[in-house]
Specification:
With 209 residues, the protein is α+β, with helices and mostly antiparallel strands. It contains nine helices and four strands. A four-stranded mixed beta sheet has the order 2-1-3-4, covered by helices on one side. The radius of gyration is 17 Å and the shape is globular. Bound molecules: glutathione. The site of glutathione has 12 residues, from α1 and α3. The site of glutathione (GSH) has 12 residues, from α1 and α3.
Length: 209
């Protein structure tokens, strides 16, 4: 079997998710920590985004496609179940994660703090507005994990893997931490799964500041 290479800086929530899939399944991989919009990334992702994967003659972009490929090609516990209804529920939550939660929680709220347009001066009005819109999203997640402690079904799946790095980052900032702390089911969910070996082993290095 050729070596599996994941390309992208480890701080990306999506690079983290793909690495976590490898850790859950016990798949060895090499991380090439390169930034978006660099030649190796642009060669695979039409919009220069990370992560990108190389495995022999297979190159892929988009975290969901990469995770699915790894799940199907390698041995180890399935992160997307075989059974069609269970698989569809996982797909549904991955899609919601990418289309709804990432767009607001990461691209608007977290990026607003971490990469302000004017260095050192986050646009607090925009950040507060994003935080306000996050409230119903956090309620949705809190209700979703209440019955089983997982986002989809009664096992740990790609649905959880996809959302956990997002929640980790939201929890690093004041409004996010407060809202997540007030969501009892989600708090329990986060504490439990942030302690998973696969989560810790795939986590980015701590920030320097
Ligand atoms: N839908 C993509 C999203 C990937 C994505 O947004 N990656 C971010 C880093 S977390 C990125 O490359 N951003 C650079 C940009 O948007 O220009 C996936 O699931 O892989």
């Amino acid at each position: 079997m050729p070596a599996l290479e994941i390309m992208g800086v480890p701080q990306s929530n999506y690079v983290w998710a793909v690495r976590m899939v490898c850790e859950e399944k016990g798949v060895p991989y090499e991380l090439n920590p390169i930034r978006p919009h660099t030649p190796d990334i642009d060669a695979v992702h039409p919009f220069g985004k990370i992560p990108v994967m190389r495995h022999g003659d297979v190159t892929l972009c988009e975290s969901k496609a990469i995770a699915t490929y790894i799940d199907r090609v390698f041995d180890g516990p399935k992160v997307i179940p075989e059974e069609p209804k269970a698989a569809a529920r996982v797909e549904q939550w991955v899609s919601l994660g990418n289309v709804e939660f990432d767009k607001l929680m990461i691209r608007q709220y977290v990026v607003g703090y971490a990469f302000p347009k004017e260095p050192g001066k986050p646009d607090m009005a925009a950040i507060k507005a994003a935080a306000e819109k996050m409230k119903p999203q956090i309620e949705v997640l809190d209700r979703a994990v209440a019955p089983t402690g997982y986002l989809a079904g009664d096992n740990f799946t790609l649905a959880d893997i996809n959302i956990l790095p997002m929640l980790f980052y939201v929890n690093r900032f004041e409004e996010g931490k407060e809202m997540l702390g007030a969501a009892a089911n989600l708090s329990t969910y986060m504490a439990r799964h942030f302690a998973r070996e696969s989560f810790r082993k795939s986590a980015p290095p701590p920030p320097k500041n």
